[in-house]
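The data are passed on as follows:
___
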Amino acid sequence: MQLYQIRKLEIKNQQRFVIIAVIITAALKFILMDWLHWRAFYITGISLFWLGYIIYRVKANGGIQHMWSYDPAPFKRTILILIPFVIASIIATILYGVYNNSLIFTWRIIPVLLLYPVWGIIQQYLMLDIISNTLFTVLGTKVSRYVIILIVSVLFSFIHFPSFVLMIFTFFMEIVFVTVYLKWKNLLAIGIAHGWIATFLLYYVMGRDLWLELFKLS
């Protein structure tokens, strides 16, 4: 019984640590990215911290390995469902770029397409594995799953303040991601989809060159 109580206390402490870390991550976004414009510092630091925590979780608890596609079946199902959404989103951003004469092809979009999925995985890990699972633990028996999907999507949208374009798009994107996650729970596929969609959105709708923003290259 004593060992059970110790283990229960450890789990509570871990959950408390994770929630505090998520809050700090969100707060630092507004301070370091939006206010100080230290995007590279913030993204690199937060990515390393959460990737380290993810590795720890995978090693400590093999039960979450399916989220990282150790089992290929959930990855295949998730990516197949998301492919039409990814393609439609990319086509829409390209058409927007054509209409607004902002469709400029540059080699810099290629490394961003390769690297942004890592940042997408981190973001979706926070939203889907931590926040949505916490909400299900606290509210799961009291509210519909659709309410939790809505809450998570609103929170993800708010993180992208003050860009209202990003807030609107990310709200609907997260609805898709949360729904798919609850079905197959594969974060790797969702993170890849997030990264590809976000890359084209930033370049051709927001007019932002993320590579230059991060590395100040010419």
User: Anything to note?
Assistant: The chain is about 80% helix and 0% strand. Residues 2-215 form one domain.
